[in-house]
């Protein structure tokens, strides 16, 4: 009877391990930017309140990859097209105020940082910025962005839990802008999106 119990325990253990392996692959790789701080991180850390479910899962802003040719629809870029995170698309916070901004300086090197709650095989990281004169009174669209990324960081393999990389910020900017960061996953059809409000 003891041998049978051991085999049963081993089988349960293997089944559990298999379930964990399955749950840690596929589309469960998640991440967000905290330098410059993203809208989802501002909701998660309580700087901005009444954000809804994004406050518990800032890492889950996942949508189709291929931006700007494809990807989330205009007006849904900051939420990656996820209706449950629609608060991130609004030009104002859920409380009606302005999104807090990070001060940056055009032309200088800046260290961008991602936090990953589950790591995923990666193609690259790309960073886009709004055009001068962009419409700040509506949800972000492709027409508001310079569609050539100002920084592209190729990456092969799975990133560590925290990943930093540096690049030069665009010049000729002043005032409030949005940086759209896109983490492209290599082995799924998706990417992760993060909008950060900055002041040049």
UniProtKB/TrEMBL annotation:
Q: Where in the cell is it found?
A: Secreted
Residue intervals passing through the bilayer: none
Keyword Nuclease in annotation: no
UniProt-listed InterPro entries: Cellulose/chitin-bd_N, GlcNAc_Chitin_IntDeg, Ig_E-set
Of the GO CC terms on this record, one is: extracellular region
Instruction: Please report the stretch or stretches of sequence annotated as the Chitin-binding type-4 domain.
Output: 30-198
Keywords assigned: Secreted, Signal
Per the UniProt entry, the signal peptide is 1-29
Which protein are we looking at?
A: Chitin-binding protein
What species is given as this protein's source? Streptomyces poonensis
């Amino acid at each position: 009877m003891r041998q049978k119990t051991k085999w049963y325990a081993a089988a349960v253990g293997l089944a559990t391990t298999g379930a964990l392996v399955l749950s840690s692959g596929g589309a469960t790789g998640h991440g967000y930017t905290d330098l410059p701080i993203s809208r989802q991180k501002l909701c998660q850390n309580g700087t901005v309140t009444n954000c809804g479910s994004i406050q518990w899962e800032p890492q889950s802003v996942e949508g189709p990859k291929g931006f700007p040719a494809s990807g989330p629809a205009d007006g849904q870029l900051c939420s990656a097209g996820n209706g449950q995170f629609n608060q991130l698309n609004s030009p104002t916070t859920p409380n009606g105020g302005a999104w807090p901004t990070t001060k940056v300086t055009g032309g200088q090197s800046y260290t961008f940082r991602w936090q990953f709650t589950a790591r995923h095989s990666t193609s690259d990281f790309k960073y886009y910025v709004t055009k001068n004169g962009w419409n700040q009174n509506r949800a972000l669209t492709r027409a508001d962005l310079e569609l050539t990324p100002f920084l592209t960081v190729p990456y092969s393999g799975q990133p560590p839990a925290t990943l930093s990389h540096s690049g030069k910020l665009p010049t000729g900017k002043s005032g409030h802008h949005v940086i759209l960061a896109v983490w492209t996953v290599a082995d799924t059809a998706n990417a992760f999106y993060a909008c950060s409000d900055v002041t040049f």
